[in-house]
Predict the 3D structure of the following.
Amino acid sequence: MKLKILFFGILSEAAGKQEMILNDISDSETLQNHLTSLIPGLKDYTFRMAINQEFIDGNRTLKDGDVVAMMPPFAGG
Amino acid sequence: MLSNEENIYYSRHLLLQEIGEQGQLKLKDASVLIVGAGGLGCPVLSYLTGAGVGHIGILDADLVEKTNLHRQFLFGISKIGQPKTEAVINHLQDLNPHISFTEHFLRLRPKNAIDIIKNYEIVIDATDNFPTRYLINDACVILDKPFVSGSIDRFQGQISVFNYVDYAGTKGPTYRCLFPVPPSPETAPDCSQNGVLGVLPGIIGNLQASEVIKMITGAGSVLNGKVLVVDTLRSSFYSFALKRNENAVEQAMKLKGNIINFDYDDFCQSTLSYNIKQISSQELSKKLISQDTIQLIDIRENGRLDYIEGSINIPRSGLDKNISHIKRDIPVVIYCDLGTNSLITTKFLTDLGFDNVYNLTGGIEAWKNLNEKKSE
């Protein structure tokens, strides 16, 4: 199974890219741990995770084709 | 009733079935507070004035700076150094003489937020910092007011209508439901550190104004329970569903009657994980009275009137070129408006090997507060 990860705001700087494809990750908690190991310093950022354009709380099962967005708060105005 | 003049002025609105005379009269009766007359505030203010919102409050403590002009079109070169609130009202009164404006030339603080916000039906968050974003959220939750949130980061923006009650009487999510905990300042830089595409606040501010008009007139549906994210680089709009989180709402509600004692600056710095030195206004005041040698550096852009006596102004944008002017053997105190940008600069200098650098916590605002208390 394939997942598409979209990074927003400063998280795309931290990740060094706007999006990435990851394979075979079963749930959102595993995904978060995997991203934390891929992206140095990610644990210091505040962000919300959304699956298929819905912000999630707690752990969620992921399925093939899911789009996961990593959304930090924006400061500017 | 609309006057003949108003019928002409709003004729293009009156032609819209969704607005019409009923909607225009609702706009005329409405009162909206815009917190922040900057990148987001300028388009919001322009379009709500044009749309005929009868009473508009404008809150901002800043003066117009040259670095504002590439995106804040209510000002021009001739307005540099003027309070933004004053410059904005001069411009908007000419745009629509049917509107009454209230000027709040001050910073929104826990001690004044409730008294100001209670006079308005809808609040617009057009600010550029997290302490004020959380303060607006909490004051609106306590007062049961909806607020239209906008925020930007380089090429992207977020918009949502928070604490909105729908036709069925159900309350929508708040800013704390989206982000219960503020980011550490280092991981959430603002436009003055990170830059911003000039048209971006224009897009986001106009979307905020559009939400306000729908909330007042009842046209269409409101961006409630959803966060709209605009990405100008991808040319894409994303709408994310968001649920109300009663635990997060409770964090705001429990400040009812007590918001004045909540330190928003501290709340927004508490997640800092790195080790940098801080100094409070009280400690700094003692050191200055005992005439300790201190290098006081104001890192805000030029043109501020409220500096601390004896300080030098090295704007953050020019710091790299002026590093040699900072002595390493004398303590350095860095300050800005709220102590957020200066915190990042303090870390920057600490990382360069300056081991005697302090951030003034709460910035010039905390300093002015202390001196106001002394003179009371």
Observations:
- The first helix of chain B runs from residue 4 to 9.
- The longest strand of chain B covers residues 147-153.
- Chain B has two domains: 4-267, 277-375.
